[in-house]
Design goal:
Elements (H helix, E strand, L loop, with lengths): L1 E4 L9 H20 L2 E5 L5 H11 L2 E3 L7 H7 L2 E5 L5 H16 L4 E4 L7 H14 L3 E5 H7 L6 E2 L2 E2 L4 H15 L2 E5 L3 E5 L3 E5 L12 H15 L3 H23 L5 H14 L2 H7 L1 E6 L3
Parallel strand pairs: 2-3, 2-4, 4-5, 5-6, 6-9
Antiparallel strand pairs: 1-12, 7-8, 9-10, 10-11, 11-12
Bound molecules: adenosine-5'-diphosphate (ADP), 4-methyl-5-hydroxyethylthiazole phosphate and magnesium ion.
Keywords: ATP-binding, Kinase, Magnesium, Metal-binding, Nucleotide-binding, Thiamine biosynthesis, Transferase
Pathway: Cofactor biosynthesis; thiamine diphosphate biosynthesis; 4-methyl-5-(2-phosphoethyl)-thiazole from 5-(2-hydroxyethyl)-4-methylthiazole: step 1/1
Function: Catalyzes the phosphorylation of the hydroxyl group of 4-methyl-5-beta-hydroxyethylthiazole (THZ).
Length: 293
């Protein structure tokens, strides 16, 4: 296991970490060049923030959830996000339709199982979407990912408590083997795993990312934007997580000390527009490990 803080650390980046950081920087440039259209079926709390965040980053959002049009939108868009934050059974059915259309059109599908583990409706729907769609990426907090992996970690509504990152990594690996795709479990350390046993940890960011609503939900949409322009969903999820962490750090630098979540949220949105590949290489805090699948 190796740690790197490229450009700022006494320990140089391992070749593997440097390759991943460079790939993330390239994908960020590709998002800005191609401006992928992300079909975001997301919750009522964060729709505006998600649209603003995608636009700031350089992608294009479209929110659409009516059963009459979701297949058409999913087919015309470059990637699909399914976020269960304000779920109903009707919306769950609409998401399944959209997901099947996206799959048929070979568009990447990202699932954010908000609140999975907390209510029966969310549990049932998240499990069904995982089983039926096998999402390219599942992005959730530690408790949500643990639930889908058959485990239990501290949870309060849509938020997760703290958990050792090795435990989170084990849950992510278990779920990745089930979906055949990539799992991104976020927290103080973001944990990535895929079905062939690749894992990565992304550190940094800022705790104020948890003091306004929607940073996790926006990250799911950002993952979809990166997956739309990348070949490898692991690299795409890594790049999205890293971009979010580094944008959080840039926002903190501008904010200075203290807790002003509303101002931080504004600076974070600006940072999504301003962050560049060189910032990812400079501020990225990454640990890699390869395990047997
Ligand atoms: N303690 C922390 N320090 C720094 N960044 C954090 C911390 N907790 C979460 N984050 C970041 O906040 C964003 C949202 O993650 P999280 O709060 O886990 O998701 P959710 O909002 O779905 O519960 C992610 O980018 C994550 O890396
Ligand atoms: C508070 C809340 N309730 C249902 S969805 C939602 C937003 C959650 O946003 P995030 O998980 O990104 O903080
Ligand atoms: Mg949150």
């Amino acid at each position: 296991m190796e740690e790197t803080r490229a450009g700022g650390s006494p320990s140089p980046a391992s070749p593997e970490a440097h390759t991943l950081l460079a790939a993330a920087a390239n994908l960020l440039a590709a998002v800005r060049a191609r401006r992928p259209l992300v079909h975001a079926m997301t919750n009522d709390v964060v729709k505006g923030r998600t649209a603003d965040g995608l636009l700031a980053l350089g992608a294009s959002p479209i929110m659409a959830e009516a059963p009459e049009e979701v297949e058409e939108v999913a087919t015309k868009a470059d990637a699909l996000l399914l976020n269960l934050g304000t779920l109903s059974s009707e919306l769950g059915a609409s998401m399944l339709r959209a997901g099947r259309a996206a799959r048929a059109a070979q568009r990447p599908v990202v699932l954010d199982p908000v609140g999975a583990g907390f209510t029966e409706l969310r549990n049932r729907t998240a499990a069904e979407l995982v089983r039926e769609l096998r999402p390219d990426v599942v992005r959730g907090n530690a408790a949500e990912i643990a639930f889908l992996a058959g485990l239990s970690l501290p949870q309060k509504g849509v938020d997760a408590g703290e958990a050792p990152r090795e435990v989170v990594a084990q849950a992510a690996l278990t779920l990745a083997r089930e979906t055949g795709g990539v799992v991104l479990a976020t927290g103080a350390w973001d944990v990535l795993a895929d079905a062939v046993g690749r894992t990565a940890y992304v550190g940094g960011g800022d705790v104020l990312l948890t003091r306004f609503t929607g940073s996790g939900c926006l990250l799911g949409a950002v993952v979809a934007a990166f997956a739309a322009v990348g070949e490898d969903a692991f690299v795409a999820a890594f790049a999205a997580a890293l971009t979010t962490k580094v944008a959080g750090e840039l926002a903190r630098i501008r904010l200075g000390a203290g807790e002003r979540p509303a101002t931080f949220a504004t600076y974070f949105l600006d940072a999504l527009a301003e962050v560049e590949g060189a910032d990812l290489l400079r501020f990225g805090k990454v640990e890699l490990s390869a395990r047997e699948a």
